Amino acid sequence: MATINPDGVSIKGCSIIYAPKGQAGEYAPLATNPYRGCGHGCAYCYVPLVTKQPRPEFDAGAVDRADFDKRLLADAKKYEAAGITEQVMLSFTTDPYHPGDNSLTGLVLHILAGHGLGFCTLTKGGSRALQDISRFRPDRDAFATTLTSVDARFSRKWERNAADPDNRISTLKAFHKAGIFTWVSLEPTLDIEASLAVVDATHEFVDLYKIGKANYLKEITRTTDWPGYTLRMIDKMQALRKKHYIKRDLQSFLPAGYHNPLRVRQNHAAVA
Prior knowledge:
- This protein is α/β, with parallel strands linked by helices.
- Helices cover 36% and strands 13% of the residues.
- Strands 1-4-5-6-7-8-9 form a 7-stranded parallel sheet. A two-stranded antiparallel sheet has the order 2-3.
- The mean pLDDT is 96.
């Protein structure tokens, strides 16, 4: 008998499908991480500190975690038995569409869907995600990408091996056209104007924006007008009538009583 943890969504004894905490928990109720390492080489990435990997090893590329498919299957069966159908996020400590062999991602999506779970992929891999687009279900799943700028030169400075912004944007368009719920992570915010420009360039095919600071980058955090940025961003969101979530590190700058729901339904299922 599966035992649900006090959080109401994760299962006791499961570690492959888990409830993320802290800032990661603001993005998804459940998550899983099929790989160790990444390969995108993002200068701002905090993950090596969390996974206790030397940064050169982490940046060298991703490898499948040992017996991941079998361990995931065992967890997925427990979630199914408990009747839990939430979306599972891929991924917080890696990228599901990293530059190496990411064929495991398709199997992960297959296992999750086969056991009644939804899924959401968050990636900087751009068109590499198109290999799995047919696995996404409009009424259950979501596709997300991180964008720090629409300028390729700016992006290559910070995210040297990630897909260029235009590639990520065209992939968002493809998922939107396929009827899949799309969202953009505007975290980290490396430049206020760059992040605002991302919204201008993508709002016609993006359903939701999640907006945060530049954590672990003190030189940016100290010099950025975060109150002004927050107000400009919510003004833009309201003008464009876009769903959005302002993360906790910016919430102190929101107007009193501002409607800022933590969980927004991330699929296109019909509402009864």
